[in-house]
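Progress narrative, Year 2. Work on Rho GTPase-activating protein 28 from Bos mutus advanced from sequence curation to structure prediction during this period.
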Amino acid sequence: RKSIPRCRRINRMLSNESLQSPAFSRSNSQASVDSASMEDFWREIESIKETSLGAQEEQTPAEAKPLDEGELEAEWLQDVGLSTLISGDEEEDGKALLSTLTRTQAAAVKKRYNTYTQTLRKKNKQSVRDVRDIFGTSESPPGDTCDSHASELDGAREGKALPGIIKASGPLPDGASLNSSTLSDGSQDEEWSFTVPRSGSMSILEAIPDVPVHSNGAADPGRSARNAASDDEYLEKNIPVEAEELSFEVSYSEKLTQAPKRNRFKKLDFKKEDYVLPKFVVQKTRFGLTKAEDLSAEDMKKIRHLSLIELTAFFDAFRIQLKRNKTEKVKGRDSGIFGVPLTVLLENDRRKDSGVKVPLVLQKFFEKVEESGLESEGIFRLSGCTAKVKQYREELDAKFNADKFKWEKMCHREAAVMLKAFFRELPTSLFPVEYIPAFITLMERGPHIRVQFQALHLMVMALPDANRDTAQALMTFFNKVIANESKNRMSIWNISTVMAPNLFFSRSKHSDCEELLLANTAAHIIRLMLKYQEMLWTVPSFLISQVRRMNEATMLLKKPLPSVKKLLRRKTIERGVTSPKTSKVLQKSPSTRRMSDVPEGVIRVHAPLLSKVSMAIQLNGQTKVKDILAKFQCENSHGSSECIKIQNQSLYEIGGNIGQHCLDPDAYILDVYHVNPQAEWVIKP
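Result:
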């Protein structure tokens, strides 16, 4: 009863013409949908407040000291893997990351580093490096538009041009040091060439062979892989007329700087009902699509760093500050189930199963609801029996890790209630609630849903592994609930509005108007996640290309510069005057042996778990990953068990400029080979 006056007050605010939905224009039918859906939202808020009264003593928010702008930017630099800019240490990973940034990404890093250094100078804490010591200070060539982009992104016209793009090739000069001052600004053009600083020091990536590169980072030597097929032939076919194509090959922020401002801020007008989101289809190239779970943990860490930089540059293009305002945090528990950080839960679960990516207790909640609750009307609107919920919570905290909790006595209603409580009581919300103000501003300006999708895509890629994997499992589960909407009355709108306060919770106090904006934005973000789940967990190709370049740069930085003695020996070898000792060294060289054993365009695929453990395969422009798997299936088709084995296995690209990459069955293997000729090819689960 207490929640009814608040619901009515908020619904009156919703019907006010001055508070229209920030994401798109409204209609009379949409107003009624919002009114009904948001009433669920505020009832959920009141229910949360009532049920959390008894738990307030356990979950006391830690007093967060307000951070100044410089400290916030310092945290941002640490979060994107550039802590070396603060500490001054020389690390290969930080240098490699700087060397692969696009122009807009480099401008975003410069802006944050400038703010950090200016704040420190004001405080007179310590002497700091100038931003020009990191990115270089070369002059731009005539007609370069990089200056206008940088000034727009920085929000201030200082009249300084970003370093120009100069083609560079050839080895590093003798005695050249690879410290931070030799790094270029990291800007790169369409052909991945890098800047040479004005001081005369060379870019760290100059030693990489100057090979033409496709827009998605794939080596493209003379388009040999495409002679048999035009560009249009390897794009996704049979796209519905009403669907819009999305490309993951070019940086989102770079696209925005190239688009006219009138198109950037163009509002979306739906011809159908407002609550029908547009259909998107991902443009599929010859490299196929890559899911987050297809990459190694080390490469996904680099994807997270790049995604946060790209997300910041993306909002900079709209002149929206992506402020990392600190929210109140609750100190997590070390044991039990509720109020325990995801990482701690997964650490405990991996003692039972090393491959667990989603907490086992959460998987059990999913199973209980799926058993008998998918068709239950209002499954996530019901509060369940309070006494039973409290009893089950206590028993789960005490008995779950010891496998002594009896799940058969729990009803699907109590499971749904505890699922919401599980996310609500996490020490930090599943999704970064501190980014909500930036999303509110973006939606108030009314860009196309495609732009909102791109911002959300980068946010998902920037999530920690535990949060990203858990969120993916959660959205998969909710889509199962929505599939039974005709019986359970839980539409995508109902799920979004009910779950928004549990997934994007804020312990700070807000006015009714602020809560309304937070509610609309959080619910809209969840709608987008549910609608575009498959695409949001696909890694953009341009980020994978940057990771490859980072790995190449890291290998170069770790490789010691040749001594004078080695250079003289190489000179002798080139003249054909080789000693027996030198010849023996050459015979033992892995790269020389690989080149002699495996001809160009031929790969050796290993399948250690199959009876046919190895096979040399000649590649052509039409060879796909699924063709190689089919060959192994043909060779290992002697028994039914072997057929089952090969059906559950995939082809992996391992080593070279990638850690581990599970390839899309529709990917053209010759294109991948040209990008990473040093990789090993393995078939495994």
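The two ends are 55 Å apart (CA to CA). Residues 69-121 form one domain.
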